[in-house]
């Protein structure tokens, strides 16, 4: 299971900022973008779609054709988990690559006073995921985190939402066919919502929602390219660790200077008289470890000390 959380929008993905308001009915289906004027003709629900979205009203302002311009998409409104399951049971498409699920918010709200609210929703979610795998056997299931509701983050409903999200996250970690999308910024910043505290702002809030989902999917796709098996395989460093540290002569890089600059610090000609070297030779620098007193002066001091000792 791979999951990625995103705190802020990455500026190099500008397509996530320009999400258009979606005014289409509950079911939206599109073909990949083209230059033809009739490229978005409505088609039956059972037609092949590369990306399918089952979501409540949180995704109302998301235009999936702009979110995935190079893929055919389908967006279906499902107010509850059961509603999404029933719609999914009527479809079978082995060519669907991604199924994005953003539901359970209304379920948790409607049952917030029940002590079994979280567990009941988890059971329904398990059934929904199972149905998605049956209807779309080759698809990756993308689970979008349920967002908090209202302005009181400590309400019983928001505590249930937090517990539900944590449980879904833990269950998804062991499933290689699912991705969990975290919405960290949307979970903490209420200014990204409309006045009701439930629905996202049509521009910034919606753009963050889209960016989180696309970033998670893109990250998973990038990781799958490392091994071709759909999972990331870290490089094997065991052999290098067994060999121990490399010898100095094996290091490929231990001086950033170019060869012409390096040559300026080396003797470029033969030595001249005693102690004389070509200009620029580093060896002409004073040797701090050698004695700085002339040899003759040392001998004179030694004789004087010898005479003093003899006169004692």
From TrEMBL:
UniProt signal peptide: none
InterPro entries in the record: SGNH_hydro_sf
Ranges annotated as biased composition (Polar residues): 8-35, 222-236, 255-266
Bias-annotated ranges (Basic and acidic residues): 36-49, 73-89, 238-253
Highest taxon of the lineage: Eukaryota
Region (Disordered): 1-49, 70-89, 219-291
Protein name, as recorded: Uncharacterized protein LOC118421115
Organism this protein belongs to: Branchiostoma floridae (Florida lancelet)
Name of the gene this protein is made from: LOC118421115
């Amino acid at each position: 299971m791979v999951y990625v959380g995103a705190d802020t929008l990455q500026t190099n993905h500008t397509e996530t900022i320009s999400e258009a308001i979606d005014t289409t009915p509950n079911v939206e289906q599109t073909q990949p973008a083209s230059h033809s004027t009739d490229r978005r003709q409505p088609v039956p629900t059972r037609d092949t779609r590369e990306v399918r979205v089952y979501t409540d009203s949180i995704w109302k302002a998301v235009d999936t054709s702009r979110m995935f311009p190079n893929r055919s998409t389908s967006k279906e409104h499902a107010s509850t988990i059961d509603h999404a399951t029933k719609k999914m049971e009527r479809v079978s498409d082995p060519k669907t690559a991604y199924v994005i699920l953003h539901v359970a918010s209304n379920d948790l709200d409607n049952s917030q006073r029940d002590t079994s609210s979280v567990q009941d929703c988890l059971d329904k979610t398990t059934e929904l995921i199972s149905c998605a795998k049956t209807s779309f056997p080759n698809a990756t299931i993308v689970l979008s985190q349920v967002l908090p509701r209202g302005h009181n983050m400590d309400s019983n409903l928001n505590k249930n939402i937090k517990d539900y999200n944590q449980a879904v996250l833990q269950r998804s970690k062991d499933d290689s066919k699912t991705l969990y999308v975290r919405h960290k910024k949307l979970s903490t910043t209420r200014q990204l919502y409309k006045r009701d505290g439930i629905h996202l702002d049509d521009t910034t809030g919606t753009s963050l929602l889209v960016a989180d989902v696309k970033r998670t999917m893109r990250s998973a796709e990038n990781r799958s390219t490392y091994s071709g098996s759909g999972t990331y395989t870290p490089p094997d460093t065991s052999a290098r660790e067994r060999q121990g540290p490399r010898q100095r002569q094996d290091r490929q890089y231990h001086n950033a200077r170019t060869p012409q600059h390096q040559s300026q610090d080396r003797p470029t000609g033969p030595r001249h008289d005693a102690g004389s070297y070509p200009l620029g030779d580093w060896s002409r620098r004073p040797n701090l470890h050698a004695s700085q007193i002339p040899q003759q002066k040392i001998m004179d001091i030694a004789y004087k000390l010898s005479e003093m000792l003899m006169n004692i």
